[in-house]
Design brief:
Radius of gyration: 19 Å
Protein name: BMP family protein
Number of domains: 2
Order of helices and strands: EEHEHEHEEHEHEHEHEHEHEEH
Strand order of the largest sheet: 1-3-2-4-5-6-12
Keywords: Cell membrane, Lipoprotein, Membrane, Signal
Organism: Longivirga aurantiaca
Largest sheet: 7 strands, mixed
Number of helices: 10
Family: Belongs to the BMP lipoprotein family.
Pfam family, one: Bmp
């Protein structure tokens, strides 16, 4: 999940059943079109061609990229746009990202959506070379002011993390919880600080263990379940009974550690209770929902409508751009308090820190 800042997006959640939507692990491409609605009705068609460049992990990461893919699939089904998806590879350079974006631009894809802040350098270089094409980047707001053809799709991750922090503090029996971050970058710090503030809003004396799996420029912390497992095991051994991860694909290891320790875990980005392996899903109390699917869908919808979104578009709690899942019935007893705090954030009586 790189994972990882304003437009209202009141769309129902797309089910992230993505196992059947395979992606090449070697950086290959996948081209698809909207499925036919039925034999008795014509499928929607559009001359818009959408290019999407994934972050490390691509489809199947059960997190950040899968959420983006869900928004892409929803738009393809509703509008009949042609889509092309390109995968990232671990350890790749900015030049490789530039090549990926250039390939899409030269093939006439417009808009082109880059999933993750790691594309910032590449988008900043490629977008000026194709001024007629609208680019969008998830989780970066540094480019849109200088580049009118770059749209920033960002989220209030700290607000959603505040709510799951409040849930974690309510659920904890030991007064000791944990946070596992994939890579120590400002985006993931937003998750951490929101989580910490939410937990302390419920229990001011709660202990919070924090561990980042890697430091930049090593971004493997977003795709290393083994490291996630070791980090979470240390937290459970240290007395934690609920651990929240903002670590992309590494979160699978956190779930395994929670299962082995008889503890609980909190997922991120998508509703991971619905997508995780059946052997661990019962320990996933809730997930912080970061609606990348909504952002991607809205970007494509605006392009189909002839007026692409521009500038910085922030998907916050007020816009239902972030939130928490309730698929696991075990979270039900903690929802009322979380919603009470949500209302206070929206009303402005609670300000959630981000750094």
């Amino acid at each position: 999940m790189y994972k990882g800042l304003k437009i209202a997006a009141l769309l129902a959640a797309s089910t992230l059943a993505l196992a059947a939507c395979g992606s090449s692990s070697s950086g290959g491409t996948t081209t698809s079109a909207a499925p036919a609605e039925s034999s008795s009705s014509a499928a929607p068609t559009s001359d818009v061609k959408v290019g999407l460049a994934y972050d490390i992990g691509g489809r199947g990461d059960q997190s950040f990229n899968d959420s983006a893919a869900a928004g892409l699939d929803k738009a393809a089904a509703e509008f009949g746009v042609e889509i092309k998806e390109l995968d990232a590879t671990a350890g790749e350079t900015d030049a490789q990202k530039e090549e990926r974006l250039t390939t899409l631009a030269e093939a006439g894809y417009n808009p082109i959506i880059a999933v993750g802040f790691a594309y910032a350098v590449a988008v900043g270089k490629v977008a000026p070379e194709f001024p007629e094409i609208q680019f969008a980047i998830v989780d970066d707001s540094s480019l849109s002011e200088a580049n009118k053809n770059v749209t920033s799709l960002v989220f209030a991750e700290n607000e959603g993390s505040f709510l799951v922090g409040a849930i974690a503090a309510q659920a904890s029996k030991t007064g000791n919880i944990g946070f596992v971050g994939g890579v120590n970058v400002p985006l993931i710090v937003k998750f951490e600080k929101g989580f910490e503030a939410g937990a302390k809003a419920v229990n001011p004396s709660i202990k919070i263990q924090t561990k980042y799996l890697t430091e930049p420029p090593d971004f493997s912390g977003f795709g290393d379940p083994a490291k996630g497992k070791v980090a979470a095991e240390g937290m459970f051994d240290g007395g934690a009974d609920v651990v929240y991860h903002a670590a992309g694909g590494s979160g699978g290891g956190v779930f395994e550690a929670a299962k082995a320790a008889g503890g609980l875990a909190i997922g991120v980005d998508s509703d991971q209770y619905l997508t995780a392996d059946a052997s661990v899903k019962d320990v996933i109390l809730t997930s912080m929902l970061k609606r990348v699917d909504v952002a991607v869908y809205e970007m494509i919808k605006s392009a189909v409508g002839g007026t692409p979104l521009t500038g910085v578009q922030t998907f916050d709690l007020k816009a239902d751009g972030v939130g928490f899942s309730e698929s696991n019935a075990a979270v039900a007893e903690y929802v009322a308090k979380a919603n009470e705090l949500k209302d206070q954030i929206i009303a402005g009586t609670i300000t959630v820190p981000s750094s």
